[in-house]
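Many introductory courses stop at the sequence. We go one step further.
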Amino acid sequence: MNKLNRKFTVAPMLDWTDRHCRYFHRLLTKQAVLYTEMVTVGAILHGDRDRHLRFDVAEHPVALQLGGSEPAEMAECARIAEDYGYDEVNINVGCPSERVQKGAFGACLMAEPQLIAECVAAMQAAVSIPVTVKNRIGIDEQEDYAGLRQFVSTVSEAGCQTFIVHARKAWLKGLSPKENREIPPLRYELVYQLKQEFPDLEIIINGGITTLEQCQQHLRHVDGVMVGREAYHNPWLLAQVDLVLYGTGTSFHNRKAVLAALLPYVQLQLDAGVPLNHISRHILGLFQGMPGARSWRRLISENAHKPGVGINLLRQAAEKVLDLSSGI
């Protein structure tokens, strides 16, 4: 099994981390492991497989997050993912939405560690790439560490070596997915305790992390960090990851250079029939916090959906931004 350096990872985010988003993020960081948005076993086995799974070779290392709970189906999807070239398959045991619960996957599976163990065993028997799990610290009335410990112990005995743990529990009834990302309190200490008790496992912490300084603090206790919404809304954060967390050089020193590097990809996608707004929506946060950022966002948001619009719109929008780092 190949070893991925998951010191820093970008979270799987439904409707956000599609292939265009990941290509953009990869420009900013060469080291971080990127995750797809969750794809269900049904979509892979019975849907437009290529639409859900294709990606650019530049995205490596990239992991597929899979939603499902039937071991044979999960194993078949893992085989397909490996054939597509993914570096890892991750099982979603963290999403709290009712739509996901009805599909018998997501956070509700925290109550069925043996079933997840069976999925892990079947998937690992089918592929040579790592099979990992993303889970919560608990669900509903679970308040203690015992339930989390039992889940990790059971699943790790089936061969899973990497757990990405969202440090909030999930309420399966009564809270929306958005509320489940904000209302249950963060309990980082439980994730730290997991690492102490299972030192041979790779433990990645997730939830409420917004700065690289926080990442550095967490890395004193666990093996890696996963950042979600902050990486999406303020993607320039990713441009510092390689230097600060991996000790390697950065690719870009100003944001307009990132945009210039992205434009050939955008043009390629436009030529293939992809509407501009399918790509541009992922880069609205590139100039977050800079003078003119609001004008950048507004010009793109109001025009990128129009027929025939091209990359010149992005150039025009960038002219609204005062990029002090580039001297413009």
